[in-house]
Design a protein that fits this description.
Number of strands: 0
Structural class: mainly alpha
Radius of gyration: 26 Å
Mean pLDDT: 88
């Protein structure tokens, strides 16, 4: 009886799919975080330029 349960447990692959999806999600998040770290100086410069343009447009309209 225990041997059949052990064989069934060994052949069961339901958890494997969940683990694979978890690994894929982890790798995708690592790539996103790495990309943000690399691009953060450029993104900061873009948002600083936008902020300066909004501020200057606001002071001109007053």
């Amino acid at each position: 009886m225990q041997m059949q349960q052990l064989k069934h447990f060994w052949k069961d692959e339901e958890g494997a799919t969940a683990i694979e999806y978890g690994l894929i999600a982890g790798l995708v998040s690592i790539v996103i975080i790495g990309g943000l770290l690399v691009l953060s100086p450029q993104l900061k410069a873009i948002f600083d330029n936008i902020g300066s343009a909004v501020t200057s447009a606001n002071t001109k309209s007053q």
